[in-house]
Amino acid sequence: MGQRVALLPAVAQFLGREQKLLIGGAWVPAASGETFATLNPATGRPLTQVAQGAAVDIDRAVQAARAAFPAWAALLPAQRERLLHRFADLMEEHKAELAQLETLDNGKPFNVAYNVEVNVAIGQMRYYAGAPTRLTGETYPVSSPGFLVYTRREPLGVCGAITPWNYSLVMATQKIGPALATGNTLVLKPAEQTPLTALRLAELALAAGIPPGVFNVVTGFGDTAGAALTAHPDVNKVAFTGSTDVGRAIVRASAGNLKHVSLELGGKSPLIIFDDADLPAAAEAALWAIFANSGQNCVAGSRLYVQRRVYDTVLGELAARAGRLKVGDGLEPDTSLGPLISQRQLDQVLHFVEQGVAGGGTLVTGGQRPGGDLAGGYFLQPTIFGGVAEDSVIAREEIFGPVLSAFAFDDEADVLPRANHSRYGLAAGVWTNNLSRAHRLAQHLRAGVVWINTYDWFDPAVPFGGVGESGYGRELGSQVMDMYTELKSVWVKL
Ligand code: NAP
Ligand code: MG
User: Fold this and answer.
1) 363-413 pLDDT, tens per residue?
2) Measured between alpha carbons, how far is 109 from 333 in angstroms, rounded to an integer?
3) At what angle do helices 119-129 and 77-93 cross, to 10 degrees?
4) Percent helix, strand, coil in the chain (nearest 5)?
5) Which residue in 54, 88, 310, 363 has its CB near the most CB atoms, within 10 A?
6) C-beta neighbour count of 239 within 10 angstroms
7) Residues 6+ apart with CB under 8 A from 128
8) Which CATH architecture does the domain made up of 9-265+470-493 adopt?
9) Active site residues
10) How far is the CA of 119 from the centre of ligand 2 (A)?
11) From ligand 1's centre to the CA of 230, what distance in Å?
């Protein structure tokens, strides 16, 4: 066993000062002077105070972003690349600090914050740092004589990014990277529960030489600061990750100036295990599919379908593995599952567990809050339900906590419609050693991403997004460039 992670002096200093808004390159308080506390979900205690930005602060930030836009868009592609690479370099230099802030603010285990979250965020920044010199148009063979026709990709202008608390850094860089690479300027409104890493990123962006106003951060609440950003007449695009209900509100708010919107929303993703699969590997994958990030994961594999012949074996294996997971403070070295993000989230998840029991589900394991030292935090034991009715609330709604519902199925024809029976369509997983069946299911599962004999893998080069009420638009990959540019067609009579 290792030792509890010791806080870096830089992290202690960061937490020691009240955090302000970054607008036009200057750190300023909210116009109202108001602040709010961000809490450590492992203890329920405040970490520091953060400026409570509202509509007038959003307006100032949008004006600053508008003023910075022409010069940023006019930079040579290689100049933008250099600045974005320097930004990624600084993230790398301050990796441990970013990971500690993420663990404190969000609760996730430090080794996950360090080895997964911050690494992925840096990888994304690097991928998009290289994008400006590869932003090309096309030429077209038109059927009229004597023309040259080509397209240009032009930035949209001022973009807004609204991010959730579950992967605060990655959700931010996934939007900052492509927005800035394509020559847009940006206003970011991070989740109220986890504002700290966005603020530290903004300091690093300034230090990297990204010009004032190109990247602005306004911390605050969704229904004030967030709503103002989505309704602002001078914002050209909003990229959002979060709940489906807020996604709907954003679409409505965007109607005023018909700003572009891309939405990464919730999910209730199925993971299907056939009896010919490598069962121990499948059980391990199913374990992390639901319990990674304490289930607070948009692609959480929260509906597990296991072929009937191996159902008891797989569930037994899964429950044994779940029982060995260590729930605890993310700064403790042996923690594998951190707390939920807030008392509110914990209450919601516990309510789902009650509904599961009331609806006749069988608790295979978990369902309890750990006591002792952990009583002050928002912890919940990893929880697995069997015998759940497929039309019950816990089988249909996104729980966003460490709660799995498991079902038995007979064959491919039985499981496919059941897996597809969801208003969401973000991700799906299939475990089988039958090649044809794997590809048939990949084709017919209604989801933006299908993982075969694996789960929850991402890469900056691979597009990600959902269908149905999981949202629209894609992030990552080169395809995200379409979400941050307008295509202009130019006709030249030769
Ligand atoms: P949320 O309300 O959708 O929050 C996501 C972001 O949107 C936050 O920055 C939030 O601000 C902001 N926001 C809230 N209302 C807004 C509005 N009217 N206009 C503009 N922005 C607004 O999600 P949540 O309350 O944190 O979590 C609730 C549920 O959402 C979860 O239980 C889960 O089901 C789902 N969720 C999904 C994902 C995902 O990755 N797909 C991520 C997080 C949550 P505040 O910081 O003030 O809330
Ligand atoms: Mg917090």
Assistant:
1) 999 999 998 989 999 999 999 999 999 999 999 999 999 999 999 999 999
2) 8
3) 170
4) 45, 20, 35
5) 88
6) 28
7) 84, 177, 178, 180, 181, 460
8) 3-Layer(aba) Sandwich (3.40)
9) 264, 298
10) 21
11) 13
Cα 101 from chain centroid (whole Å)? 17
Q: Quick one: which ligand is closest to 105's CA? A: 2
Structure tokens at 344: 């509110």
CA-to-CA distance for 259 and 185, rounded, in angstroms? 15
- Bridge partners for 270 per DSSP: 303
The token duo for 51 is: 């400026």
Amino acid identity of 107?
A: G
| Domain ranges across the chain | 9-265+470-493, 270-461
Instruction: Indicate the helix (H) or strand (E) that contains 282.
Output: helix 279-291
**Per-residue pLDDT reduced to its tens digit, 213-234:** 999 999 999 999 999 999 999 9
Side-chain-side CA neighbours of 3 within 13 Å: the count stands at: 3
Ligand nearest to the CA of 238: 1
pTM above the 0.85 mark? yes
242 CA to centre of ligand 1 in angstroms = 4
Q: Which CATH class is domain 270-461?
A: alpha beta
The tokens 């691979």 sit on which residue? 462
